[in-house]
Design brief:
TIM Barrel, 28% helix, 365 residues, homodimer, 23% strand, Lyase, Ornithine Decarboxylase, Chain A, domain 1, alpha/beta, 17 strands
Chain lengths: 365, 365
């Protein structure tokens, strides 16, 4: 299997990617939602271009480097990360993209971004990020959110552009979905009312994650969605029922290097190739599973070793045999590699650089 | 604190590194042990050169790229990873280093390495890896180990050079150290006897890890140690008592980006900067702790967010404030960055590339 490639190496099934992108584009279009995919999952201009070709209305980034790389692909970038560090704000203000929006959740971040934008002589758009249950970032009260929006609206170099939230606490197939979505929808409605009453009607209401992607239209006045993982999917997305196993497009090709200990086999992909991410939101042991034998999981790892659990399979692996691992969390696994191998029908068809990986200015190291 | 740097960014305290290297070099010399540090922790020619300057007898690598980068620093490289993948074996056989040794644990790996070495017209040395309780790789029986050594000794392009094991299952301060060391010492003795009886007396007995480093001389006929983590240390090494907190030389500098949720603060370093590694071998919550406030741990993470647990501190962080995180497992955190910032006395003094990160041939991307 892919005998010309040295392992461990990441494979991207481009036929599956295209189907995943088409499905999301069709969904967004049919519900009148703007689709602004998050590039953190693939960090690749190659894949971002496929998203834009299919009608993405812009791209979402987390880091300055992601934005620097992606401005070659789209002129409309959202950086969904608060620009608290002034160096970060300066890099965002220096972007050449036609429209740059940042999502933030504090007066401190507004002021930092306002200074950087004014210094660069440009306008930066601002979404105010609210916390609707994720308990990570985002302001909890509509009154605080309105105060931040007001500060942005009053800053000469900023323009208030909308309201953002991330429903990452809702996992497909976990708990009472209908109730959780109704709660979020109600909170978004009330937030929009509070902004509107303050004379700051949000032009955009940006929400949506991969686990909730197919129910985004039920989240009240949401106008825009920002899924990331849907492009490749992963074991967690499959386990929680937000994709099928056949929609998993990313695998790490690995070689069995030892079968010395009964009941297990050791592969040459460990934490430094797969990442140590748990299945979240559903029961699931291990850190990944084999594409062709999902009952075989990566039970334990060290840096360059993965231990396959053979207790639920009749498969008897041989030293030298190759396997493909679907990681639990693809965004973390992609971040571990510099280059992706694109495949179709079991053959390599192209390679591309994960150009938005790393932190230094794009064009630098 | 380091206000000229954009966060998240990795800092290496070079004064601490020098003390860590000096201590290990003195220990090895005083016990007549060869010191062959594992470069997986730092992946940097800069640090490897400091190790060689202090008398390291060679270097240990895991990946072909590590070996390709490190051959500029040392002419004596051990690749402590079985060359089962033929591409991997070919890259090792093509190394320019004067002496290349591989550790392996199967006849399959012997044959693969023998073919590659013969093809390259060179001799490769072989350690046979035994399992003394780690249950990862390594053959369990001395008879099987001798058979592998025999196959290597008989291959024209290979030379049997020793016995290797990794006592990673013994953690400083965990369980009955004395008993565990005595068991390992006894097993190593018996293995050496079995090899010697078969006419294959091992010139080198290579063992030793960072957690056991200061007791390596108690492990029977060990002649060589291969510690990796000791150069930087990390929260796990400190928690298990194998180093002091003041010997932790690696931190990730991060910025507080949100204090919206009571009882926690959010920093801009998450899984993609710190890694999601548990404390192993001792109780310890979270994924890292603050250098200046070890009672504050990174309780949870997403890709670019870390959640600080403030329940054991009177510290009230402000948005924009900076902190330094000691990760649980430094080898995994280093692998996430392309460049290190060297500091002394709280000031940046140099930068270097983590050149052995990644998988492609050194000199390529």
């Amino acid at each position: 299997m892919f005998s010309h490639l040295e392992t461990p190496v990441p494979l991207v099934d481009l036929d599956r990617v295209e189907r995943n992108l088409d499905r999301a584009a069709t969904y967004a279009r049919s519900h009148g939602l703007a689709l602004r995919p998050h590039v953190k999952t693939h960090k690749s201009a190659r894949i971002a271009a496929m998203q834009v070709e299919r009608g993405a209305d812009g791209l979402t980034c987390a880091t300055p480097r992601e934005a620097e790389v992606m401005q070659a692909v789209s002129g409309d970038l959202l950086v969904a990360y608060p620009p608290v560090d002034p160096h970060r704000a300066d890099r965002l203000a220096a972007l050449a993209a036609g429209r740059v929006t940042v999502a933030l959740d504090s007066l401190h971040a507004v002021d930092t971004m306002a200074r950087a934008a004014a210094g660069a002589g440009r306008t930066v758009h601002v979404y105010v990020e609210m916390d609707l249950g994720m308990r990570r970032v985002g302001v909890a009260s509509a009154a605080d959110a309105v105060a931040i929006a007001r500060r942005a609206a009053d800053a000469p170099a900023l323009e208030f552009a909308g309201l953002a939230f991330y429903p990452g606490h809702i996992r497909q197939g976990v708990g009472d979905q209908d109730a959780a979505l109704a709660v979020v929808a109600g909170e978004v409605e009330r937030a929009v009312e509070a902004f509107t009453a303050a004379g700051l009607r949000p032009p955009v209401v940006s929400g949506g994650s991969t686990p909730t992607i197919w129910r985004s239209h039920e989240m009240g006045p949401v106008t825009e969605i920002r899924p990331g993982t849907y492009v490749y999917n992963d074991r967690t997305t499959a386990v929680i029922g937000a994709c099928s196993w056949e929609e998993c497009a990313f695998t790490v090709l690995a070689t069995v290097v030892s079968t010395a200990v009964p009941g297990q086999a050791v592969i040459d992909a460990g934490v430094k190739s797969i990442g140590r991410e748990p299945v979240r939101g559903a029961p699931g042991e291990g850190f990944g599973a084999l594409l062709d034998r999902p009952e075989v999981t990566v039970r334990a790892m060290s840096e360059e070793h993965g231990i396959l659990d053979l207790s639920h399979t009749s498969w008897i692996p041989r030293v030298g045999e190759r396997v493909r691992v679907v990681p639990n969390h693809v965004c973390v696994a992609v971040h571990l590699f510099d280059e992706m191998i694109g495949i179709r029908d079991g053959e390599e068809v192209e390679r591309w650089t994960v150009a938005a990986r790393g932190r230094s200015p794009a064009g630098g190291s």
